[in-house]
Amino acid sequence: MLNEIYSECEAKMKASIEHMQREFKTLRTGKVTTSALDNIKVDYYGTATPIDQVGSVIATDATTIVISPWEKHLLGTIENAIAKANIGVNPNNDGSVIKLFFPPMTVEQRQESVKQMKGMGEHAKVAVRNDRKGANDKIKKLEKDKEITQDESKSAQDNIQKITDKHIEKIEAILKEKEVEILKV
Asked: Is 67 within 8 Å of 57 (Cβ atoms)?
C-alpha cells in the first residue's frame, strides 16, 4: 500500500522533470533549433496545425531554419503565422521555401533565456512539492483510517521527503547544466 504511494509519487515527480525539459526546448540557446517553432500553428484547411505537419522544417546551420511547405499555397500562411508569433525574426519567402535567419544572441538575450529557464525550473519544483503534498495526504488518510500506525505514517512521510529531495536536487543539477549551455558564447 505504501509502496504504491511511493512509486506513484516518484512517477509524478519524474513527469514534472520531463515536462520542464520539454519546455526548455522552446528556449533559445546559442544554436537555433527547429523546436523554436513548436508553438506556432498555421491555418490548414480550417485547423490549427503545427508547422512541422505542413512542411519540412530543417535547421541548416546554427542561425538558420528553412521551412519547405508540402503545398506551395501555404507559404503566405506560414509566413504570417511566424510574423504573428513574434519569435524575433522576420520570415524570408523566396517563392519555394521560407528562411528564418536568427541573429547571434546578445548577452542580454542569453540572460533573459536563463531567467525564463529558472522560472520553468521553479514551476517544476512547485509541481514536485505538490506531488509530495498529495502523497503525504494519502499517507495521513491511511493513518486516520487506522490502516497504518502513527510510526509507519511518520516513516512513510520521511521516505516521501527523501524522494522529493532527490528530485529537487535533480532539477537543480539540470538547471545548472542548462545555464552553462545558454551562457556559453
From this structure: yes
Tell me the CB-side half-sphere exposure of residue 64, using CA atoms within 13 A: 7
Give the span between the Cα atoms of 150 and 155, in whole angstroms.
9
Helix (H) or strand (E) holding 56, with range, is strand 55-61
Angle made by CA atoms 47, 52, 54, in degrees to the nearest 5: 50
- pLDDT tens digit sequence for 42-77: 999 899 999 999 999 999 888 899 999 999 999 999
Lowest-confidence region among 17-31, 120-134, 163-177: 17-31
**Residue ranges of domains in the chain, CATH in brackets:** 2-26+106-183 (1.10.132.20), 34-101 (3.30.1360.40)
Query: pTM (2 decimals)?
Result: 0.73
Residue among 34, 19, 24, 94 nearest 64 (CA): 34
Contact 142, 58 (CB under 8 A): no
Rounded CA separation 45/26 (Å): 26
